[in-house]
Amino acid sequence: MAKLQNVTTVNMIDGEITAIKYNGAVYTKVDGIACGSDVVDGDIGLISEEAALASFHANSYYEAKTRTGSSRFIRFKAGNDGRADGIKLNRVTLFRKAETTTASAPFAEMVVSRVEAVEKRMNAIETKLAPESEALKVGDYVVIKPSGYLLKTYKVGDILLITGFRGNGFPIVKADDRESEFMNTAQIRKATDAEVAAAMAPPKPKTGDIVVITANTNNSNNYVGDIGKVGECRTSVARVEVVGGRTVGNWTYYTEMRLATPAEIKQYEDGVRQAEVVAKQAAKDSVFTKAGRKYKELRKDDVVRITDGSGHNLDVGDVGIITELSNSFYRVTVSGKMDAGNLTMAKQLEIVCFAENRVDAKGAC
């Protein structure tokens, strides 16, 4: 870049710079520039924030070049190779080298002393107010601030990560899975630690999410390490339903849970399926217990339903009566079907009606 270095402010009126110093020479502000042809080689331009482009830095000084014609643009050296780019007149403050005159030694010394004093004060102010963008580096987070126009990919207030820098010194930024873009340093500022923390905070769990309990400061019936599903949600806590856990007193702070990983979600779902199997089995056990029998204790004249059609001639869903017990096999006689090839095992049968509960001799309960 052909950005001029070591340009200092010599005079400022009501916040507007009216004179600068560069390479030992004083340059004063030029008013009344109507077109590019009014510019003289060697003039120095101060680029405004609104005029900053890929070739120029905002609030920086560049050397101007003479331009013929009535163009409303001023040409500035944008690269070390002499390349020049144009910027509109109304977006540049132009300075021209002041004519030198012979002055007495005491007067000259006074002027030099005054200039040096102003330079010291301005340097102190510039150091204090130096834009944060000058210290930006890869890995820093920045915030997009209002800059006169908005980008298509990002919006004002977005927190972005600097992933690199272009050749012109502009940072390359990226957020989430959105594409990278380069930014004018006038468009961004370094994010505070609080802003970064807020942007990086995990999303708040919602009803239906699978979460892992990470702490328990409210004496919840959920334990650290439990995996459960978020139920009812309130302002600061949510009910987390853990497989096999208690269904009361199971409130957990959002700050003491995190979203489960895919592997943890699978672990939770496997636990749910296993619990369903156990519950179903317990329900079946209770049927036999209530009848005064052991689980799967089948007897002659019991009415049963076929649940597995392998190894015999009966069909799944057939309902029949146990008419014979032979070792671990049960002959099930089904009305309308041959009484042959109908030996089954207990695990292939589901009880419909115990023999002692039948009220007729035809298999009806």
Descriptive report:
- With 365 residues, the protein is α+β, with helices and mostly antiparallel strands.
- The chain has 4 domains: 8-128, no CATH class; 133-200, Roll (SH3 type barrels), CATH 2.30.30; 205-285, SH3 type barrels, CATH 2.30.30; 303-357.
- It is built from 3 helices and 23 strands.
- The chain has helices at 105-128, 193-200, 262-290; strands spanning 8-13, 16-22, 25-29, 44-47, 61-65, 73-77, 84-88, 92-97, 141-144, 159-165, 171-174, 181-182, 188-190, 210-213, 227-233, 237-242, 251-253, 257-259, 303-306, 319-326, 329-333, 343-345, 349-353.
- The strands form 4 sheets. An 8-stranded antiparallel β-sheet has the order 1-2-3-8-4-5-6-7. A 5-stranded antiparallel β-sheet has the order 12-11-10-9-13.
- Mean pLDDT is 80; it is low at 126-134.
Strand content: 25-35%
Overall average pLDDT: 80
User: CA-to-CA gap between the ends?
Assistant: 97 Å
The DSSP helix count reads 3
* Largest sheet: number of strands, sense, barrel closure: 8 strands, antiparallel
What global shape is seen? rod-shaped
Let me know the number of strands: 23
Cα-based radius of gyration, to the nearest Å: 42 Å
What's the helix-strand series? EEEEEEEEHEEEEEHEEEEEHEEEEE
Q: Which regions are unreliable across 5 or more consecutive residues at pLDDT < 50?
A: 126-134
Strand order of the largest sheet: 1-2-3-8-4-5-6-7
Q: How would you classify the quaternary structure? A: single chain
Sheet/helix structural class? alpha+beta
* Total domain modules: 4
Approximate helicity band = 10-25%
Protein name: Signal peptidase I
Organism: Sporosarcina psychrophila (Bacillus psychrophilus)
